[in-house]
């Protein structure tokens, strides 16, 4: 099987599973959403008190276990990190703010489009715009530095975190919160969600699919390899929805589940997501997979996502079907300005260091 066909097939697995999970009970157009699911987990852990979005999503646990297991078998489970961790945490924080203003991560953006939500087209335009801006910084030498080998125990922290979440999901201790209404109360059967999540984790780990990486490579080096994976997600999710969820298929901008049609903030929210994803080196789903295979920088980014979700709901930043609150709009603008300033500062610092080295060696 050729590389492009293989990518399309892997993407197809993910897209089809997204449609299946929605059919089995996950919220509308949210068979899979990394940002939304980490947001729900943050709520379940009591980090925010938005009662309608509190649930330990088994799909996330399955994805982590799947990626961990296959990377362990293939010898890719290695401890590395140390590349600007605090910067990665903050970028993850703002990435989540942008996602919750749009109401979905890049993966959900594709799945929303595959079920007829044309607001996702506006989000896609913003996402590609953010990626394009980020690529300009890459061309000028932006980097957060090289990761180095870490202590062996550090690579197990993230899988252990997933195991703790699974224990909480099973025994349901009193300090873990579960929604009784709203999106957080909706979910496919736990066992099926775990299994299908694990399949997604394996597919993502083997394929290296990254929504940001796909558009980045197409813009930067004219390589469409990963775009075939993104196309596979869309095509198979569309086919799955037309077969399994046809009664819920709704082509248009209005009356879409867990979405709003404020074009400007759909665009700018995903612009922030795209820009942060490029500066981080991967979208939320890629960061989750990397963390599962021992990358502590990616794990720190994911924890930034979790805290960003908690902050968004505790301080009224997250959007809803009613639109985007003023605080959320301000936060997106701050996030974009922060990301731009950070990238510019990194490049400026790099040039100064290069000039010093040049003078020293002269």
From TrEMBL:
Q: Where are the transmembrane segments?
A: 7-25, 55-74, 86-111, 117-135, 156-178, 184-204, 225-244, 264-285, 297-318, 330-347
Q: What NCBIfam families does UniProt report for this protein, alphabetically?
A: seleno_YedE (TIGR04112)
Protein name, per record: YedE-related selenium metabolism membrane protein
**Species per Swiss-Prot/TrEMBL record:** Paratissierella segnis
Q: Which UniProt keywords apply?
A: Membrane, Transmembrane, Transmembrane helix
Q: Could you tell me which InterPro entries the record lists for this protein?
A: Seleno_YedE, Sulf_transp_TsuA/YedE
Q: What's the short name of a Pfam family annotated to this entry?
A: Sulf_transp
Keyword Disulfide bond annotated: no
Q: Which domain of life does the UniProt lineage start with? A: Bacteria
